[in-house]
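Project outcomes to date are best conveyed with an example. Our students and postdoctoral researchers have been running inverse folding experiments weekly, and each run begins with a structure described purely in tokens. The record below, which covers 418 residues, was selected by the lab manager from last quarter's runs and is presented without edits.
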């Protein structure tokens, strides 16, 4: 049975790889897209692209909730270090090349900034939390990034990660099978106003805060929880976002760029697609991005092929910019003892496969000249979810080198079209 399953998945991987290569060939031959014979001099230069990597800021001791959640004092490294293999060849625990460094240490972040900029990543997107009437994990941004001596090299913006958290979600070793709700991601009007004031004051006025047409970009992870915050009403949610816009204008900016962050994604029915597009319009979002590229599969090439189809569908139904996302992988087994092989991206999960998908995202950006060439990557440091650019003991700098090769125009896509 094991041999049959392995052969079936390997066959699926071959089929998936073929489909991605077919997509690449098609895109090289379509009109108004880069030609297979296009030389490097006519290709966009690396500086024209914004490559934004998400940062999960959990690897430090949080003053408010650290003792309760991660009592060892090292943040979620406590969970990451306890990762264990669930099948033959499973890479757990993940081993950072630079060791278990604190993400709120400005010296560590200075190293991050240097290696990121040197490899073509020019924006960090910080996951930002607000629970029980106050911030959570903010030190990574406030004390790590903003106190880094070289942070002027790197732009940043925040994604409000306003999702619920079950008690055992971030430390199953402490809370075992307790799935009761620890934090609700929804907020009331009073807290929303505090959040608006805080992010404008602390972040938007920073000279390296990422803006589009002069507008600070603010991303929202869970639009569902945002709606819940205002009684499930699209109209009331629009009022809240309009209030945010007005406060941003009062602070001296032309407006606010509000980004719907899809989180992940899957193919939608015609009805669901229409509802999604309608909500984006009615609430006044300026763009749509993704945290994960969507379409997860054990085979990375199939995962990538699925994500391209999802992106194509979303692009066809939206009348605001959609920014492409490329994920590096997926493996959140350190958080979930019951998960196994079928929950992990483990076939063809290589820097080279990632480079092919990043090239596809770059093509997408080139083929949408009316919008900023923003590409997001999941992620910079999602060690606990198996998706990170930072160097480790398995791939070294492989993923960072892939970004540099693709975004600098040195990815050999021409030979792949022949």
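After processing, the design step wrote out the following sequence:
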């Amino acid at each position: 049975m094991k041999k049959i399953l392995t052969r079936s998945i390997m066959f699926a991987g071959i089929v998936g790889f073929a489909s991605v290569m077919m997509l690449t060939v098609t895109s090289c031959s379509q009109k108004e897209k880069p030609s297979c014979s296009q030389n490097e001099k006519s290709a966009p230069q690396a500086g024209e692209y914004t490559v934004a990597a998400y940062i999960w800021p959990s690897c430090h001791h949080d003053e408010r909730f650290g003792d309760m959640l991660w009592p060892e004092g090292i943040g979620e490294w406590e969970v990451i270090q306890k990762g264990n293999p669930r099948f033959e060849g499973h890479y757990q625990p993940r081993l950072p090349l630079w060791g278990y460094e604190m993400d709120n240490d400005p010296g560590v972040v200075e190293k991050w900034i240097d290696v990121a900029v040197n490899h073509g990543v020019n924006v960090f997107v910080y996951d930002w939390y607000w629970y029980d009437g106050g911030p959570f994990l903010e030190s990574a941004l406030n004390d790590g990034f903003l106190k880094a001596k070289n942070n002027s090299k790197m732009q940043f913006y925040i994604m409000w990660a306003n999702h619920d958290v079950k008690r055992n979600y971030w430390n199953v070793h402490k809370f075992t099978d307790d799935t009761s709700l620890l934090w609700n991601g929804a907020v009331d009007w009073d807290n929303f106003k505090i959040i608006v004031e805080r992010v404008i004051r602390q972040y938007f006025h920073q000279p390296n805060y990422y803006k589009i047409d002069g507008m600070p970009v603010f991303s929202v992870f869970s639009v569902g929880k945002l709606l819940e915050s205002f009684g499930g009403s699209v109209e009331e949610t629009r009022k809240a976002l309009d209030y945010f816009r007005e406060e941003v204008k009062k602070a001296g900016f032309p407006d606010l760029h509000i980004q719907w962050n899809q989180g992940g994604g899957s193919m939608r029915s015609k009805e669901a697609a229409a509802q999604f597009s309608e909500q984006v319009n009615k609430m006044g979002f300026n763009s749509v991005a993704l945290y994960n590229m969507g379409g997860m599969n054990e085979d990375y090439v199939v995962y990538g092929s699925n994500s391209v189809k999802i992106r194509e569908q979303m692009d066809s139904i939206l009348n605001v910019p959609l920014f492409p996302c490329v994920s590096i992988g997926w493996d959140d087994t350190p958080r979930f003892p019951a998960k196994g092989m079928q929950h992990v991206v483990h076939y063809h999960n290589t820097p080279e496969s990632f480079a092919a998908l990043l090239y596809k995202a770059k093509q997408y950006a080139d083929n949408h000249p009316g919008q900023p060439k923003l590409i997001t990557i999941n992620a910079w440091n999602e060690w606990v979810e198996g998706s990170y650019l930072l160097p480790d003991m398995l791939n070294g700098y492989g993923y960072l080198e892939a970004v540099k090769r693709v975004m600098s125009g040195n990815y050999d896509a021409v030979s792949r079209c022949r």
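The longest strand covers residues 123-131. The two ends are 39 Å apart (CA to CA). The training component of this project remains on track.
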